[in-house]
Design brief:
The longest helix has 20 residues. 42% of the residues lie in helices and 11% in strands. The strands form three sheets. It has a six-stranded parallel beta sheet with strand order 2-3-4-5-6-7. The chain has a six-stranded mixed beta sheet with strand order 9-14-13-12-10-11, with helices on one face. A two-stranded parallel ribbon has the order 1-8.
Length: 493
């Protein structure tokens, strides 16, 4: 039984219970432990909080010394979005690679092994998987985080991922409801708008979420997107029609509803985080995610006090806040009861990420023996969800297989002539990410292939552009194991 270390009134405890804040550092600050003692039931972790599995386990143990059922949440999708391996790259391919293989058993096993590693470190809530159908290939924020553009493929893999993750005792949080796939705007920066009719939403966006609900997902994350067919004025996170009307009543979902990060500009820049949080809880959300960008005690107190004030002023029904807090505590209690099932066989578990990455490769052309090539990585600006602190590419992995390999990184504006000059007489390996979305990148590849027909091209984003080069490898993601799998093909091992 959890015993609160400090006496606080019920309303204040409920307001704290619905928050999922972040913090700075690799140990829990005193203020965070104090608020956990006062009723804070969840904490969000980001890359800045993680140095090693051992350190992470010590951190979560610190939190559980204050409250044994604390929810420790993380944004660990595997693939491009990793927090566990933020400084080295993920040991697992992301959703698009799993969708490309289209083996739901593999997806289930990958999610189960990822969940096992999270649980081993004391993490019990994962803000994953992404159930978005990536129907817009120019989507700047979803892309390889989606299982693909096919609705039913996305649905069956979403369900498999949820089942695998939760088999490890880690709650899944399926996102971004009601579907972030058909956007050309990143909600970290502005408010995206999806202008499709209800029939399209029902036939495309909602199918994977229905599959996740049927698979028993413990949480669903709302999207900061405007969907006029459902609510012409408020984004999904703040919409009673979408969270209560559609998700709760129409789809029959009874689990936890979590908001996407409230400091994202789609909400913070239009409503502010205090008003946005009150509106979200009133609309039907149960937990407020905040902490990716605002990670201090002042933010927690601002949101706590805004919720308490809204109840006292009558703009937020007390029973709605109490219901939200009860759902948070119910999930926290589940994590104490949850027992992981048997781990996959050792060799399959430990190497399953690389196995999946190898199976996901799409290779055009015939590999030929290389000595030490020159790897030119064409680097777009990383979106905020992925972050720029996680390394990607094939250079390091290729250098380990072909000693003497040299490499350079080239941002937008770097001429192909610079790459050719640096390469000398070495074979060029051009590494790109979403070449179809970046004209400068496509032009550079064209120039390299024209000058050097033996150029190898590795596409580590969405493979929409026509294959170019003597050898073209689509990895369907940019995680470390995707780079390793491509490097093995290039090196002929």
């Amino acid at each position: 039984m959890t015993v609160l270390a400090h006496q606080t009134d019920t309303l204040t405890r409920d307001a704290l219970a619905v928050l999922q804040p972040g913090f700075e550092g690799t140990t829990a600050p005193a203020w965070l432990l104090r608020r956990v003692g006062e009723g804070l039931t969840a904490v969000g972790l980001f890359g800045r909080n993680i140095a090693s599995p051992e350190q992470l386990a010590a951190l979560t143990a610190q939190l559980r010394a204050e409250r044994d059922d604390v929810l420790v949440a993380i944004d660990e999708e595997g693939g491009d979005v990793t927090r566990l391996e933020v400084r080295g790259g993920s040991s697992f391919p992301g959703n698009l690679a799993l969708g490309a293989v289209d083996d739901t058993g593999l997806t289930r096993d990958v999610a189960r092994e990822l969940g096992r590693r999270l649980a081993e470190c004391g993490v019990n809530l994962n803000w994953a998987p992404s159930a978005d159908v990536n129907s817009n290939p120019d989507n700047p924020v979803i892309g390889v985080r989606s299982f693909g553009a096919d609705t039913h493929l996305a649905a069956r893999h979403t369900a498999a991922y949820v089942e695998g993750l939760q088999a490890s005792g880690v709650a899944a949080c399926t996102k971004h409801f009601p579907g972030h796939g058909d956007t050309s705007v990143d909600s970290h920066h502005a408010l995206p708008r999806i202008d499709v009719d209800l029939d399209t939403l029902q036939a495309r966006e909602l199918i994977p979420f229905k599959a996740a609900i049927e698979a028993g997902t413990k949480a669903v994350m709302s999207a900061h997107i405007l969907v006029p067919a459902l609510d012409p004025t408020r984004p999904a996170t703040l919409s009673p029609q979408i969270l209560t009307g559609l998700l709760r009543k129409e789809l029959g979902y009874e689990g936890l509803i979590v908001t996407d990060g409230m400091e994202m500009n789609a909400i913070a820049g239009t409503y502010g985080i205090e008003r946005g949080s009150v509106l979200a809880i009133a609309a039907g959300a149960d937990a407020i995610c905040v902490g990716g960008g605002l990670a201090d005690e002042a933010t927690v107190l601002r949101l706590r006090d805004a919720l308490v004030a809204a109840v006292r002023e009558g703009t937020l029904p007390e029973e709605r806040l109490a219901d939200a807090a009860a759902r948070v505590r119910e999930l926290a209690a589940w994590t104490l009861r949850a027992r992981p099932d048997a781990r996959p066989e050792g060799s399959r578990a430990s190497g399953i990420g690389l196995t999946a990455a190898r199976r996901a490769l799409a290779v055009t052309g015939a590999p030929r023996p290389l000595s030490a090539p020159y790897v030119a990585t064409l680097t777009p600006v990383a979106n905020i969800a992925v972050g720029d602190e996680t390394p990607w590419g094939v250079a390091a992995e290729l250098a380990s297989l072909l000693p003497g390999t040299e490499a350079g990184a080239y941002p937008e504006g770097a001429p192909a002539a610079d790459i050719l000059a640096a390469a000398g007489d070495r074979t060029v390996v051009a590494v790109v990410r979403d070449a179809h979305r970046h004209a400068w990148m496509a032009q550079a590849v064209e120039a390299l292939v024209a000058a050097r027909p033996d150029t190898v091209v590795v596409e580590m984003g969405l493979p929409r552009a026509e294959p170019r080069g003597a050898l073209h490898i689509a990895t369907h993601g940019a995680s470390r194991v995707c780079g390793r799998a491509a490097a093995e093909v290039i090196a002929g091992v």
